[in-house]
């Protein structure tokens, strides 16, 4: 395919990554984005080493390191603050590169470098695809492209978890990813530097409580202090998407449009960026792209499901397992992702 006309639907992490990866191959794309303020607000995001590796491939390694805060250690505690797992991050990622925490708006700003003029604020409809040789659905969990290309695909499936995300002040730890595991409740604090943390709290439940904050009253400090200071909280239901086929005709799905999971492995952005890079290598061989990406996406799906099941074991059983074989299991879950995509 010589000088193909390409449409990318969705100007989030996957879509912007694809635009940059295609441009590096000499292919320019039009981008549609339904959100008129894609850079507004947001909380934080953890970018594990394979995500930073992908950003480096796209030319943004220095920018993301400058904007982010490196994470040097992962720590899992029970809901009273007693240790379950404590590992240097390089033990998990084998030294392939840094892992960073960053504000979501900063990541989007970096990825929009050189592309802002190419983004049209528009909601995709099927007639938009007609003039294009390739349509890339990068429009997230509620993908309009997926509904058009795969009308019989199952809708996003709630995994039974509700989540609250926010950025809080008053967190003294630096370079640390830390979770507290309760009975059906989890709290994550991720160092952003300067006394700030990106916080993620979740609850195993089908419907939200009237007030989520009391759920963490029996957790130790600094959890209670972070919860008490929470403002601009983003609440949502965690949903899963997975397709065994992500291509049909001239269309392909990437990022959350193709695969979205419980965030316990923090692989959403990483897989989206890897998708973008691999897709650019395979235009116009979409089936070749799918053969490379689906097994990796399936691995992450299966690992996230196993980790969710482990979280929901009786606390005494769960904590005993994590203290005894947790470090080995934690590292094994990420081992295949050390290889380039």
Automatic annotation (TrEMBL):
It comes from the Bacteria. Pfam families: FAD_binding_3. GO terms for molecular function: FAD binding; monooxygenase activity. The keyword Metal-binding does not apply. Residues 5-87, 133-280 form the FAD-binding domain. Transmembrane segments: none annotated. Keywords: Monooxygenase, Oxidoreductase. The keyword Oxidoreductase applies. PANTHER family: MONOOXYGENASE, PUTATIVE (AFU_ORTHOLOGUE AFUA_6G14510)-RELATED. This is 2-polyprenyl-6-methoxyphenol hydroxylase-like FAD-dependent oxidoreductase.
């Amino acid at each position: 395919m010589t000088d193909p006309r390409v449409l990318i639907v969705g100007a989030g992490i996957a879509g912007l990554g694809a635009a940059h990866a295609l441009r590096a191959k000499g292919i320019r794309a039009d981008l549609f984005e339904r959100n008129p303020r894609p850079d507004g607000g947001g909380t934080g995001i953890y970018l594990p080493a394979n995500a930073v590796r992908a950003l480096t491939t796209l030319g943004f390694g220095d920018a993301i390191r400058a904007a982010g805060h490196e994470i040097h250690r992962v720590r899992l505690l029970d809901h009273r603050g007693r240790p379950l797992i404590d590992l240097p991050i390089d033990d998990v990622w084998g030294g392939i590169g840094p892992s960073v925490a960053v504000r979501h708006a900063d990541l989007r700003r970096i990825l929009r470098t050189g592309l802002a003029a190419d983004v049209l604020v528009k909601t995709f409809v099927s007639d938009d695809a007609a003039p294009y040789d390739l349509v890339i659905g990068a429009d997230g969990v509620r993908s309009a492209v997926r509904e058009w290309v795969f009308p019989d695909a199952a809708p996003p499936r709630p995994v039974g978890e509700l989540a609250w995300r926010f950025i809080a002040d008053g967190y003294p730890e630096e370079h640390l990813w830390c979770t507290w595991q309760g009975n059906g409740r989890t709290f994550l604090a991720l160092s952003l530097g300067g006394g700030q943390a990106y916080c993620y709290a979740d609850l195993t439940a089908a419907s939200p409580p009237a007030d989520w904050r009391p759920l963490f009253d029996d957790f130790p400090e600094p959890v209670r202090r972070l919860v008490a200071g929470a403002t601009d909280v983003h609440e949502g239901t965690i949903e899963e998407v997975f397709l065994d086929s992500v291509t049909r005709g001239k269309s392909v799905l990437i990022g959350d449009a193709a695969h979205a999971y419980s965030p316990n492995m923090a692989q959403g952005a990483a897989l989206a960026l890897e998708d973008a890079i691999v897709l650019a290598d395979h235009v116009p061989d979409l089936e070749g792209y799918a053969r490379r990406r689906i097994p990796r996406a399936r691995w992450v799906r299966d690992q996230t499901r196993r980790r969710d099941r482990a979280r929901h074991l009786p606390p005494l059983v769960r904590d005993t397992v994590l203290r005894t074989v947790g470090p080995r299991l934690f590292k094994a879950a990420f081992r295949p992702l050390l290889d380039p995509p």
